[in-house]
């Protein structure tokens, strides 16, 4: 078996490979239509997905389009334009790109084909505010939701009712057949929540969106409150709903997810002779998930069974300190390490498959058996840093961050705990 640290990093790389758009996109490409083919979309994997289309599309067939991805996630393409924009808070570049996409979609005919590339991050990158709502007001609501501990499903329920590119509105606009290729970053892989479901019927309503803001005690800007009031009064049409004939020509395909990434990692680990418990996709507060995993590790140890505990999904963080620099994966890892600090054989990694944990430059971090001793020698108060939401600061000081740069895919978290 590889040394534990190498094992952790190699398993993470294998998981990323299991979500590679270059292998996932081509089997789902339809044949070229009689007319032209337009490619649009957004997300952290959008450029890589668009490249896969270019690489496998007939050179003599019509192909053009525009996708938007996060800064530093772009790729040089020849037939499809790539624009980089801000994430997780939206900016004007993404909104302008969305306007251009909608204008092009509106010109399609039934003889054409619309291919929509969607992946995690698409909600912010394609955040075109609804009429009467300004971008800064949309940003304010998004920021408040991200800090509240709301799930991505809840956040996207609100955003669908504040933006023009989401909640089935793209499919409803197109006169051409639609093939949506979706790389899932959402637990359960429901297309309606991935990138806020531009091509999927929306079961949520204005009332649902307003109720979520009330539940999380978020006071929206006046323009947002007014928009919701008009929606509730029926003055603004709600998003297209399940059963609408507008979706008869739409084919939504989830082509990759956390399941494919975890399955690749599990297979590889077992080839190394490691016994794996695959927990699948997990949701919940990062600290709570860490505590549950720590308890499972202790139970397995009591039975004398060495394990590798594997999981994915998406945890959340309720921000208690606005100056903290910890993403959800480093927060999970620090909480897990503190819960298992008395054990001398624990190795663990927690990373985001897109290469960016939170808003810093790292994918995540690694915990090794001597982490507590090195932290004490460096004068680091792990518990205090965790409480301050500054897990990044803790692992950075110990040089235990995992830095990959953009991976150009996104199926959310990768967590692996090994007892070696």
Shape: globular
As residue ranges, the low-confidence spans are none
Strand residues, percent: 15-25%
Largest sheet composition: 6 strands, parallel
Distance between the termini: 10 Å
Provide structural commentary.
This protein folds into two domains: 170 residues, MOFRL domain (glycerate kinase, domain 1); 168 residues, 3-Layer(aba) Sandwich (Rossmann fold). Helix 3 links the parallel strand 1 and strand 2. It is globular. With 420 residues, the protein is of the alpha/beta class. The chain has 16 helices and twelve strands.
Features of the shown structure:
glycerate kinase, domain 1; Rossmann fold; six-stranded parallel beta sheet; six-stranded mixed beta sheet; 16 helices; globular
